[in-house]
């Protein structure tokens, strides 16, 4: 039988494997294999081997142990250090004896020990670097609370001294404000928070002008600062300027983004909404409310919100029932175009709609359930606080679009159509029983407004203001979202984004010019969008028919039906709808052939085809966008 050596034979393979086996791999084995890594498991699996190893470990010497223990010596381990030192001396005495006996064996042992020592040193250095990196990562993960704008301001009896005046700020509002200096400082000026107050800026009493569209406290005049701080000292019932409401909304949005003061912020936003009738404020405040409900998941705060003042899509997502007024407001959004009775007989239409709702749902509300919110198309929303968007071109909130649920849109359309048919039938009966003598009492139509420069009809001042406001919103959105497509969206959605980004401003500009009676300018803008936006073709059709350009209307609809770009972007319902429009346009063209005043040239049509070819090549590469 071969005699076993007192010294353990080093195994470089086993040592290397023990040091390189990943922690994740051991964790997986521990989760899958019962008893893996537990003390005593080896004896149960293989008692013979376990007993042998125990005896061998106690009756042999590890030649590499002095090297292993050299780096691990720490205070409080004096006995272990002395034991390792003894083994070290025994090891070198044995080496010396072997040197005297046989020089070749000695050189072999020294070579092996040198290689093992070098490997141990390398592994030790690697472990040290890894440990150091781990510590650095953990330290970086811990937020620097000194820079975060989450500190509550120190309140001294609710008073604030700014400039040379003292203000008794509302105690419910003071903790929500941001200050860049003084005892109430809770944010650094480098952050660029536009609502942050500096007590060193001058204030003065007096009349002030209206604030700019994107107000900032640092850019206000002394009189405007005095007005703002004085307003914050009230219960916010009377708002002198909508810019004050936006300044306060700025700081509330920052708190909402950091998951702070959600309930307090929501109460203030709801109060401001109840006093302000402004589309921009309703949009931005709806973004904050949606962020609370869809990002922070705080549906318990819904009781503080008046959904009637929020964006209509947010109302649909949160209420699960719609009133008759809300259904009427959604008419154009669900493609209910025949709104003659809604405009001419609003009270009668609403009454018919309410009666149908009571008959179908047992109440005055249209009740519904969204099929799957997670699968709905996402629509971008933004905060009004522009400092939150520095270096970030993505929207602050991607909120589900409930009107992308086809079933819901179909059901709303059906309810509106029922009310429409009911009003139509009632009016037909009423006209049948009315005396012919009453025809003289027929309402005289108001004369149309005409643009004196162009001779074309104009819309009302309210419609022109609404079109101007819509154009401002579109330009602002495009300015803050100069992106190609969001990486998380599908190829179809990316194509739709590309088309919208390149036609939205032109379409809104054309609508505004049309309402102002500048039809020639509107025509030029719409013609640049015909190749990628089906709405442009439809608007041109309507305008051409009003100008008695019936053949031009036929050609523009025919182009839209055959356009490969529009076919690729839109669904089949678009093609069906436009084919019906084409038939109607052709019938009108034939009927009014003698009075046709069409003037589209061959060059105009060739340009449309060139635009179509250009955009078709462009959308073919949209899948490579990031």
Output the radius of gyration: 39 Å
Q: State the distance separating the first and last CA atoms.
A: 72 Å
- Main sheet, how many strands, which sense, barrel? 2 strands, antiparallel
Number of domains: 3
Low-confidence stretches: 73-84, 126-157
What is the approximate shape?
Answer: elongated
How many DSSP H or I helices? 24
Helical residue percent? Answer: 55-70%
Report the mean per-residue pLDDT as an integer.
78
Number of strands: 6
Q: Secondary-structure element sequence?
A: HHHHHHHEEHHHHHEHHHEEEHHHHHHHHH
Provide the structure class.
Answer: mainly alpha
**What is the percentage of strand-forming residues?**
under 5%
Lateral arrangement of strands in the main beta sheet: 1-2
